[in-house]
Amino acid sequence: MELQGHWNSGVIGGLTPDKKPLGSDKLSWFGFPAVGGGAGAPDASFGGGDGFSCSVKAPPACADFLNFLLNAENQKTFAETGAGLPVNPDAESAVTDPTLKNVLEFRDKSSFVELYFDKALPTAVGTALNNEVANLFAGQSSPAKIVAAVAKAKGQQ
C-alpha cells in the first residue's frame, strides 16, 4: 500500500516489468481512514485539483491558453489518458479507468478539498518543504528540520 496521488494509475505502468498498466484487480483507491476523535471530516479531500491562474500583469494570451487547456474537448482528451482527473465537469464522462472513477466520485462528493501544502504556500516556501521532505525520505532530515526549513524560507518572503 502506498499513499499516492490520483495520477498513479496513469503512470504506474512505466514502472512495471512489461510496461503495461496495472488492472483494477491490482490497483485501487480508498479515502484516508477516519481517526476516532479526529477533527477532520471523513469526506474531505487533499489534492492538487490542477488549478491554473494568470497574473494580473499577464498578457491576454495567458487567459486564452487556459481557456484552450480547460475546454471540454481538451479535458476529455486528458481524461482518456488515465493520467489524472479533468477539472472541467463536462469532461468527466471521458474517465474510464476504474480507479480514477472511484477518485472522481469521492472528489465530487467531498465537503472540502485542501490544496497540497507545497502549492498552497508561496513558491519558495513550498519548494523548501518539498526539498526537505525528500531529504526525510532519504534518511537525511527530520520533522524538526522540515519545520526549520519552511520557517527559514517563509522569513525570506
Task: Describe the protein.
- It is a single chain.
- The chain has a domain at 116-157.
- The chain contains seven helices and two strands, in the order H-E-H-H-H-E-H-H-H.
- It has helices at 8-11, 60-69, 72-81, 98-109, 117-120, 123-137, 143-155; strands spanning 45-47, 113-115.
- It has a two-stranded parallel ribbon.
- The protein is globular and about 45 Å long.
- The mean pLDDT is 88.
**Helicity level, as a percent range?**
40-55%
**Spatial extent as radius of gyration:** 18 Å
Distance between the termini: 37 Å
**Given the structure, what is the number of helices?**
7
How does the major sheet shape up?
2 strands, parallel
Low-confidence stretches: none
- Compressed to H and E, one letter per element, the order equals HEHHHEHHH
Class from helix and strand fractions: mainly alpha
Estimate what percentage of residues fall within beta strands: under 5%
Shape: globular
Count every beta strand, where a strand is a DSSP E run of 2 or more residues.
Answer: 2
What order do the strands of the largest sheet run in, or round the barrel if closed?
1-2
Q: Mean of the pLDDT scores?
A: 88
Question: Any key phrases for this structure?
Answer:
mainly alpha, two-stranded parallel ribbon, 157 residues, single chain
Please write out the topology:
Elements: H1 8-11, E1 45-47, H2 60-69, H3 72-81, H4 98-109, E2 113-115, H5 117-120, H6 123-137, H7 143-155
Parallel strand pairs: 1-2
Helix pairs in contact: 6-7
